[in-house]
Structures are given as structure tokens and as C-alpha cells.
Write a structure and sequence with these properties.
single chain; binds coenzyme A; alpha+beta; 205 residues
Amino acid sequence: MTSGCTWRRPRYDASIVQALFAAAASEPQALDGQVGSMSLATHVRGMQDEDLLAVARLSEDAFRDTYRFDWQANAQALLDASRAGRVDVCVAERDDAVVGYCNLRAWPIGGWIDQIVVARDQRQKGIGRALLEATVVAARRRGYWKLSLVVSSVDAGALTFFRACGWDLVGTMTDEIARGIDGLLLSRIVDHALHPNPNGRPTSG
Ligand SMILES: CC(C)(COP(=O)(O)OP(=O)(O)OC[C@H]1O[C@@H](n2cnc3c(N)ncnc32)[C@H](O)[C@@H]1OP(=O)(O)O)[C@@H](O)C(=O)NCCC(=O)NCCS
């Protein structure tokens, strides 16, 4: 099954991730705290050094059938960019184990999510939704008025997940994921008040 938010190329160098993250600039932010309606046993917080292996394993398990990737280097790039304050990476912890993560980076006039993963045996429990909610909180803190991502047109589960979490389908790009597999651009408003050009917006609505 093809999956992944924005990993459009079968071969993808972690240094590209790093380069993309370099475009983001803000203060490091903590993501600690209980989020949304998620079970009390689960906690969402910012990624720490000790989460490296868990994040690498989660990404490999979720995406290895689709992408050839250095999973450890990917996790390290996320951690480094997070420590440098260029991106936010939140992890979900349950019973002292990391069971999910989600990244947020800058994108023109908003933020972008590349990866959100929940461990297979922990899905459908609200953890993915909680990770998205934590990411929206982080986006608001960074001043992003809108979030966007791309999912594969053949990944019906991911599309349903994001729609259930309040994301809108913005458009389709033919062959964006691979030849014969379109990319679906999804977005979600964080806060209209954060729009970069508020004076150019309609006065009503
Ligand atoms: C997509 C993913 C992150 C969802 O995480 P999750 O913890 O299972 O999601 P939640 O339990 O928070 O679900 C939130 C809502 O989405 C729905 N949903 C989640 N996964 C779904 C699926 N595969 N099919 C249909 N609906 C789904 C839930 O039913 C729930 O709806 P509700 O609130 O109306 O009851 C998880 O399935 C995953 O890690 N997939 C592999 C990686 C991936 O494809 N990531 C997305 C692209 S980067």
C-alpha cells in the first residue's frame, strides 16, 4: 500500500529533510501536556534524544513497503531540527513506550506535516488525532495560520483519518506520488487571525 504524507519519491535522502527543515526558524517549543480526548494513559510531548530509536522504528514499520530510506538518519534529522528549534516533533507516549510521532515544519504561509505515524497495535484509539491536535497547538505558537500535507490517493485510510480530524481536501495532483498514483493536498486552518495579510481579507465571514 502506498502511504506517507509528503514522501513523494521512492528514494529520499534524509539530508533533504534536513535542508527543508533549515527553512524553518523559530524558538524551540515544548509540546508537553495532555491533548484532546485521548486516554489519560497517553501523553504527548516533544521529541527527546531517547526517542530516536522508537521514532526510527515507527517510521520504518509504517513506510518501508513504500520508500527506501535510512530510517535512523530520518529520525536523527527530525531530532536535530527539533533541538535546533527549526521544527516541532511531538511524540505520543503510552505506558513508557513511544507509540507515535508527528512532525511540523515551515511551509510558505503556513506549516507542513511530512510524517505522522501511530504504532499498528495502538491505532484507532485517538492517538493520531491527539498528535494532530498537539501539532495544531505548535503551529499556532509558531504563527502558522494554516497547515497542509499530501496523502496518496490510494491511501483511503489516511484520507479518512485526516477528514475525520477536520482537514479539507484542497486538490489533486496527477502522478504526484508516483506514476499512476496521485497526491491529494489536504489543509486545515489553524487560526484566521494569523493570516499573513489580514488587511487583504474580507471584512465579513
Ligand atoms: C493514519 C494514522 C496516523 C491514524 O492514527 P490513529 O491513531 O489510528 O487515528 P485515530 O485513532 O486518532 O483516529 C481518528 C479518526 O480517524 C479515523 N481513522 C483513523 N484511521 C483510519 C483508517 N485507517 N480508516 C478509516 N478511518 C480511520 C478514526 O476512526 C477516527 O475517527 P472518529 O474520530 O470519527 O472515530 C495511523 O493509521 C498510521 O500511523 N498510519 C500509517 C502511517 C500513515 O499512513 N500516516 C499518514 C500519512 S503520513
